[in-house]
Design goal:
Blueprint: H1 3-43, H2 47-62, H3 65-76, H4 80-90, H5 92-104, H6 108-116, H7 121-151, H8 164-172, H9 179-208, H10 211-214
Transmembrane segments: 24-44, 183-204
Main location: membrane
Pfam family, one: BPD_transp_1
Length: 215
C-alpha cells in the first residue's frame, strides 16, 4: 500500500487524531499563556524574582518529556491529565521569559505619564504596559506552540490524545507493510498543524500589533 492509499483508507482516523492533537496543544497553550503572563507580571519588577521565574521554568524544560509523563502517571493516571500537565509546564518558559522582557522594556516615561493622569497600578498594567509588551509575549507564545506540537506526540506513551498514537503504532509494528506510512502520516500531520498554528499567530499579530510597533 502506497502512502497516498494509506491516507485515503485512514483519513477519518487521521483527522480525528489531528483534531485531538491541535485541541490539546491549543488548550494547554491558553493555560500556559495565562500562567506565564501572570508570573511575568508578578516578577518583572524584581531582578531576583524574574531570574528565579526564568530559572525555574528553564529547569522544567530540561526534564525529558518521556520522563515527565512517566513521573506524572502514578499520580494522575493515563490519558489526558498527564498530557495537559506536561504540555502546560513545558510551554511556560518562552512565555514567562518574553513577558518579563516585554514588561521591562516598556518606556518608563509612558508609565510615569499614565501615573500622572491618575491611572491606578492595575489600569496602567492593563492599558499601557501589557499592550506594549504584547509583541514579545506573542513571540513567546509562538515558540511555545511549536515546541508543544512535537512534545505532544509523546503523550501517546501515556494513552494521550493526538497524532503521536499514529507514530507509536508505526514504531511498534516496524517491519510491517504500513509501519512507515503510520510514522510518516503522524509526523507530517504534526508539521502541517504547526504551520497552520504559526500562520494563525502571524494573522493575530497583524490584527493586534500596530504597524509602527511591528516595524
Amino acid at each position: 500500500m502506497t502512502f497516498w492509499e494509506y491516507l485515503g483508507s485512514r483519513h477519518q482516523q487521521l483527522l480525528a487524531d489531528a483534531y485531538q492533537h491541535a485541541s490539546a496543544v491549543f488548550q494547554c497553550m491558553v493555560v500556559a499563556t495565562v500562567i506565564g503572563v501572570l508570573i511575568g507580571v508578578v516578577t518583572y519588577r524584581s531582578e531576583w524574582a524574574g531570574n528565579l521565574a526564568t530559572t525555574t521554568t528553564s529547569t522544567i524544560l530540561t526534564i525529558p518529556s518521556l520522563a515527565m509523563i512517566g513521573l506524572l502517571i502514578p499520580g494522575v493516571g493515563l490519558g489526558v491529565p498527564p498530557t495537559v500537565i506536561a504540555l502546560t509546564l513545558y510551554g511556560l518558559l518562552p512565555i514567562v521569559r518574553n513577558a518579563i522582557v516585554g514588561l521591562r522594556g516598556v518606556d518608563p516615561a509612558l508609565v510615569d505619564a499614565a501615573t500622572g493622569i491618575g491611572m491606578s497600578r492595575v489600569t496602567r498594567l492593563v492599558r499601557v504596559e501589557l499592550p506594549l509588551a504584547w509583541p514579545p509575549i506573542l513571540t513567546g507564545i509562538r515558540v511555545s506552540t511549536q515546541m508543544l506540537m512535537g512534545i505532544a506526540a509523546i503523550a501517546a506513551y501515556a494513552s494521550g490524545p493526538g497524532l503521536g498514537n499514529e507514530i507509536f503504532r508505526g514504531i511498534a509494528s516496524l517491519g510491517s507493510k504500513n509501519a512507515l506510512n503510520q510514522v510518516l502520516a503522524g509526523t507530517l500531520g504534526i508539521i502541517v498543524l504547526a504551520l497552520l498554528f504559526d500562520a494563525a499567530y502571524v494573522l493575530i499579530g497583524r490584527l493586534t500589533i500596530p504597524r509602527g510597533i511591528r516595524g
